[in-house]
Amino acid sequence: MFYGAVVWDPWLIVAQIVCLQCLYYLTLGVFLSFLVGIRVSRMSLVYFFDFASVTTSTVTGWCVIASFLLSSIAGAGYMLYLIERAKKCLDFSATLYIIHLFICIIYGGWPSSITWWIVNGTGVAVMALLGEYLCIRRELREIPITRYRSSKK
């Protein structure tokens, strides 16, 4: 965690994006398994990428919404360890959700549900703001300075 001269490393940025995206979907899968898996007979990618599953009209839809929001909170924690800089949190959060939007468009078409947009907009805001807060807290910690005394005999 050295904050000296910043060197632009595109491979590091790509690796961070890939790691963050994978951890986000892994966490989303865990939350969906616990919250939605007990309600449905068969889990599928529909709950990950189809905008129609994000709805407030069913209990299962509320469980999907909760899974997405809990995953964004976990994503903020991942950014604390992967990104480590508060000023980069918004960039990485937005990138994660833009990639998610593209995958959703490929999977089920353009999301026409206002609920989907609200949930994902809230998710990117929570992930960015909480990630920034956590990173700022880490950046502002005092640096421990120990003094070693030479023992004279």
Summarize this entry quickly.
This is Protein SYS1 homolog. This protein has helices at residues 10-35, 46-49, 59-82, 89-108, 114-139. The chain is an all-alpha fold.
Structure commentary:
InterPro entries: Integral_membrane_SYS1 (IPR016973), Integral_membrane_SYS1-rel (IPR019185). One of its GO terms (biological process) is protein localization to Golgi apparatus. Keywords: Golgi apparatus, Membrane, Protein transport, Transmembrane, Transmembrane helix, Transport. This is Protein SYS1 homolog. The chain crosses the membrane at residues 12-39, 59-83, 90-110, 116-136. The structure is a single chain. With 153 residues, the chain is mainly α. It has one domain (10-136). Helix content is 65%, strand content 0%. Helix 1 packs antiparallel against helix 3 and helix 4 (89-108) runs antiparallel to helix 5 (114-139). It is elongated, with a radius of gyration of 20 Å. The chain starts with 9 loop residues before the first helix and ends in a 14-residue tail after the last helix. The mean pLDDT is 92.
